[in-house]
Write a structure and sequence with these properties.
The complex is a heterodimer of chains A (about 260) and B (about 400). Chain A has eight helices and 13 strands. Chain A has about 260 residues and is α/β, with parallel strands linked by helices. Chain A is globular, with a radius of gyration of 23 Å. Chain B has about 400 residues and is of the alpha+beta class. The longest helix of chain B has about 35 residues. Classes of the chains: A alpha/beta (about 260), B alpha+beta (about 400). At the A-B interface, helix 3 and helix 6 of A face helix 1 and helix 2 of B.
Chain lengths: ~260, ~400
């Protein structure tokens, strides 16, 4: 059973004041980390290997050349191999363009049984890419997975629990499939020092669009958007005078008149 | 191998190790430090987690259960741990430099398999025991004895004190006297097991600082040690103890650096937030001068530590000692820790004296670094004897 972990490197939003320019995330020159949701991605992929009969975990990342650091973290945590997809034409790709490149890379990797992703990336927060990858590959999509019930590589089946707003859903699917995980799935491990030694020596290949048989037109953004702050609301402050009892009565009267209570 | 170039630039591997250690220390150790300081118990849960990451035998080759990293990686990781909590730093330092390093350097294959592998891989906790109630720096006056029997085994009797991790250690690297008439040349090193008859854990020391690093006496009552558990030859104990202290002193220097850093960062945070007399504290020149001195001393201490690490790496090739470099780093870094903790507490005023903040803990923890593994006075003696050629 081969597992592919989709990971992304994102700005460190814990240092938000330095990463926000108005409403836009500043990508350049800011501290970057493995997308925190993808720490769960990696933990899930590693557990699929260690506890559910997986054979190999490949970490796959689309991003700028610095994203190689996120892939080294993946190897330090225990991934067997890592591949970076980097191409200038992908710099402004939307989630569909990103998904096309990822799907092409997954086909190039070849044998796969489970593709794991995080519920979203903390920079764009769309949660769309993994779903689009599943669609492009023509395999089932299991989103918001909170627990693995049973995984059977031989029978090509998987049973998972999905965390939904209204409760829990137990879903059984055939393999291969794509799943996204939420943080209830498992606590991510820390990379150990032996893993770091391996990671620092690992040769991580970079695939360009041409390596994936894609052109810039194939991944060109179809969606553009702008963001605005919600309009500020006008507020008035009225100080109520009097003794505490009088203030309370006046306040209640006003709230009732305004039909708030 | 060492990759310290003339620029002292850390390699990507070193940076990854430092970042992983920092991440772990800040997320797992820092939040529990005050609690374990309060109750004074050994933080077994975090130590087990550290073991799984490879903190406990960092420089020992993977074949013997370690992480197989270099001396610079060790100090980078230890600094981060100590910055979060000096007690965890003590436990890590003793396990690595005083215990694992000693067996790796002097131990037979049998000793490495039995006593090194389980400790470097973190399954067992280890201790180093040289001090006795009536002998500290002057080890030649120790009263404990190991008497050789006709079958080659030794019977050990006596009382050891101030044993770091004594209340929980599975194995102890023990120094005791086999030939009292020969003074420090009569000291021999043994590896002893806590689950054997005659091994008794004594009273736990109620300490001022590093309270989570449990420290106790150990009492030996007719403890029988097989000949093959002797480390080195008879009479080589003092040399082994001192050689290990060279490495140990780099560890304590690094622990001190971590405490100094923590105190300094607390001070900088407070100076940039707290206001008095209508100004930020950091705008007062008297405090600016102090914070400048703190920062400068910290960086000087760090460079002395890196210098000692470099000397240790060279010594591993040449077989020479690096006592001078290790002692200078230990002396300067520990006095820097005390100075920075003192300054940081004073800058905080009343709140610095409160257990609401960790600053008072840094102050209590810093003090031990000027005392154990050779007091500041001993370091000055060692340094002076080295430079004056008086050994």
């Amino acid at each position: 059973m081969n597992i592919i972990a989709l990971i992304k490197q994102t700005p460190d939003t814990a240092k938000l004041s330095r990463t926000l320019n108005g409403l836009q995330l500043m990508a350049d020159g800011q501290p970057r980390i493995v997308n925190p949701w993808d720490e769960y991605t990696l933990e899930t992929a590693l557990r699929l290997k260690e506890k559910h009969g997986g054979k190999k975990v490949t970490a796959l990342c689309l991003g700028n050349p610095e994203s190689i650091e996120a892939l080294r973290t993946a190897i330090a945590m225990g991934a067997d191999e890592a591949i970076l997809i980097n191409d200038a034409a992908l710099a402004n790709a939307d989630s569909l363009g990103t998904a096309r490149a990822l799907a092409a890379a997954i086909k190039k990797i070849g044998a796969y049984d489970i593709i794991v992703g995080g519920r979203s990336a903390i920079d764009g927060n769309m949660g769309a890419t993994a779903v689009q990858v599943a669609t492009l590959l023509g395999v089932p999509m299991l989103s918001y997975v909170a627990a693995l019930n049973a995984v059977n590589g031989g029978a090509k089946s998987i049973s998972v629990v999905r965390a939904m707003e209204y409760g829990r859903e137990t879903v059984t699917s055939t393999l291969p499939c794509v799943m996204t995980v939420v943080k209830e799935i498992a606590e991510p491990r820390y990379p150990n020092f032996m893993g770091i030694r391996k990671a620092s020596k690992a040769v991580i290949p970079t695939w360009k669009l041409a390596d994936l048989g894609l052109s810039a037109a194939d991944v060109a953004a179809k969606v553009t958007w702008a963001v605005d702050l919600p309009p500020t609301r006008d507020t008035n402050v009225e100080m109520i005078q009097g003794s505490p009892a009088e203030q309370a009565k006046a306040l209640v009267d006003k709230l009732m008149a305004a039909k708030i209570i | 191998m060492m990759s310290l170039g003339p620029t002292l630039e850390l390699t990507p591997e070193h940076l990854m190790i430092r970042d992983a250690a920092r991440d772990f220390a800040q997320n797992e150790i820092a939040p529990i430090a005050a609690h374990y300081d309060e109750i004074g118990e050994f933080p077994m849960e975090t130590i087990k987690k550290m073991s799984a990451m490879g903190f406990m035998g960092l420089e020992i080759p993977e074949a013997y259960g370690g992480a197989g990293m270099d001396g610079l990686s060790y100090v980078l990781a230890l600094e981060e741990v100590s910055k979060a909590d000096a007690s965890h730093g003590t436990i890590m330092s003793v396990n690595n430099s005083l215990y694992c390093g000693g067996i790796y350097k002097y131990g037979s294959e049998l000793l490495k398999q039995k006593f090194l592998q389980p400790v470097a891989s973190g399954q067992k906790i280890a201790a180093y025991s040289l001090t006795e109630p009536s002998s500290g720096s002057d080890a030649s006056r120790m009263k404990s004895r190991a008497v050789k029997r006709s079958d080659g085994s030794y019977v050990i009797n006596g009382r050891k004190s101030w044993v770091t991790s004594g209340p929980v250690a599975d194995f102890v690297l023990l120094f005791t006297m086999t030939a009292p008439e020969r003074g420090h040349n009569g000291i021999t090193a043994f590896l002893v097991e806590a689950d054997q008859p005659g091994f008794v854990r004594g009273k736990v020391e109620p300490k001022m600082g590093i309270r989570a690093s449990a420290t106790s006496e150990l009492v030996f009552e007719d403890y029988v040690c097989p000949a093959e558990h002797r480390l080195g030859e008879e009479g080589e104990g003092f040399k082994i103890a001192m050689t290990m202290l060279d490495a140990g002193r780099i560890g304590i220097a690094t622990q001190a650096l971590g405490i100094a850093e923590a105190a300094y960062e607390a001070a900088v945070g407070y100076l940039t937030e707290r206001e008095a007399f209508g100004k930020k504290l950091g705008e007062f020149q008297g405090l600016q001068f102090q914070v400048a001195d703190m920062k400068t001393r910290i960086e000087a201490a760090r460079l002395l530590i890196y210098n000692a690490v470099l000397a240790k790496a060279k010594a591993q090739q040449s077989g020479a000692r690096y006592t001078l470099e290790a002692s200078m780093a230990k002396l300067y870094a520990s006095e820097t820790a005390m100075e920075c903790a003192h300054r940081a507490l004073q800058m905080h005023g009343g709140i610095g004296y409160s257990k609401e903040l960790p600053v008072e803990r840094y102050f209590r923890d810093a003090k031990i670094t000027e005392i154990y593994e050779g007091t500041s006075e001993i370091q000055r003696m060692v340094i002076a004897r080295n430079v004056l050629g008086l050994r």
